[in-house]
Amino acid sequence: MGDRVVTPYEGSGHHTWDDAAAIEAPLRLHHTSVSAAWVDYNGHMSESCYLLVFGDNADAFFRFIGIDEDYRAAGHSLYTVETHLHHRREVAEEEPLALSLQLLDHDHKRVHIFHEMRHGESGLLLATAEQMLVHVDIEAGRSADLPPLLAERLDAIQHAHAALPRPDVVGRPMGIERH
Amino acid sequence: MGDVSVPFAAYRSAVRAEWLDYNGHMNDSSYGIVLSEANELLFVELGLSADYRASTGASLYTVESHIRYLAECSLEHTLNATTMVVAAGDKKVHLYTELFRDDDRLAATGEFLYVHVDTALGSSVPMPSEQRARVQEMASSHSGLPPPGHLGLGVGSSRQRSGSV
Predict the structure, then answer these.
(1) Which 3 state secondary structure label does DSSP give B150?
(2) What is the pLDDT of residue A179?
(3) Of B38, B120, B22, B102, nearest to A6 (Cα)?
(4) ipTM of the complex
(5) Residue-wise pLDDT tens for chain B (165 aa)?
(6) Spatial contact of B150 and B96, defined as CB atoms under 8 Å apart
(7) E-strand stretches of chain A
(8) With an 8 Å Cβ cutoff, is A134 touching chain B?
(9) Which helix or strand (DSSP H or E) is residue B120 part of?
(10) What's B163's DSSP letter?
């Protein structure tokens, strides 16, 4: 690890938007494997690294729709408002991770997404993340409408993802069930 | 045990350079690290810390975590946290932690559900009676605190309970 948090897509290497291409449902923009720096005393990926990997998947999505260094330098970005993780299974060092991303909903400035992290070979579900993002004017520190180009791309993804089932944990509050 | 009629408030840390990302602010995943560190101090108080894990082979696993990001944090900030035990069962602990900057701005909230797991068996098991009693004692003391506005709400909900912060 460097002296700050770096995403794998800073600079290059991400999937870019192609108006002519079909949109995957869900999107599959990020694959990685469990790095030695991410595992805890028992050899499993530590809790905070799930957030890191989902963050990298979100970054791949941002870059796919057009939010990269240039976009941010021009004054706007997508900020995370909330993240709700469900941990399902442990995963060990060097094991492959396959991330997917479903666009659940969006409006003129909010984007509601759902990530799944699966084992890259077995396909077993390791964790999910539901996130609410908001488009912001960085300097003003306030939410701001998405520009038309991003809104069109999100509309196109929403259309492609309309047939996907809504995951059952979406919007569900946390609690201890009593039997 | 200390005074448990107020939220547990032991955590204090300056923002560290390795928590920042390209924009000089704390990365999303770093809020998770800080909230976990704060919760670990509570687990020390409850006898469920890393030492407990080392001596018993049992541990609290995170099943769910729900973080709300409310203010940016950078190197000039020192952070502190308050935690309440929202509910507890024989095997489960539900915590709510608020993270504050030293200018008293609420920077994040985290709601966590933990399950007590015997790592050798690979399955959930009840906590030992001593730990269960400590957790229940703190839960019942914290039940007198005003309920946090966002507690028990799903992502995207803007509903706030009356009297909330």
Answers:
(1) coil
(2) 61
(3) B22
(4) 0.91
(5) 555 578 999 999 999 999 998 888 999 999 999 999 999 999 999 999 988 998 999 999 999 999 999 999 999 999 999 999 999 999 999 999 999 999 999 999 999 999 999 988 989 999 999 999 999 999 999 999 988 877 878 887 764 433 333
(6) no
(7) 27-33, 76-87, 96-106, 110-119, 125-137, 142-143
(8) no
(9) none
(10) T
Q: What is the pTM assigned to this prediction?
A: 0.92
Positive or negative: CA dihedral A140, A141, A144, A147: positive
Looking at CATH, the fold of the domain delimited by B12-142 is given as Thiol Ester Dehydrase; Chain A (3.10.129)
Tell me the shortest Cα–Cα distance from B112 to chain A, in angstroms. 8
At the second CATH level, the architecture of A27-161 is: Roll (3.10)
Contact present, A39 and A93 (Cβ < 8 Å) = yes
Instruction: Report which residue type is found at B63.
Output: V
Which residue type sits at A97? Answer: L
Distances from the Cα of A23 to the Cα of A102, A109, A137, A160, A162, angstroms: 11, 21, 28, 6, 12
Residue A99 and residue A31: Cα distance in Å, rounded?
Answer: 6
The SS3 of residue A100 is strand
Instruction: Tell me the count of A-B CB pairs closer than 8 A.
Output: 109
Test mutation, A1, A48, A90, chain B, max B CBs within 10 A: A48
Residue given tokens 């469990």 in the structure block: A34
pLDDT in tens, A32-78: 999 999 998 778 999 889 999 999 999 999 999 999 999 999 999 99
From chain B, the residues in CB contact with A84 under 8 A are 64-67, 154-155
Q: How many CA atoms lie within 13 A of B67 on its CB side?
A: 22
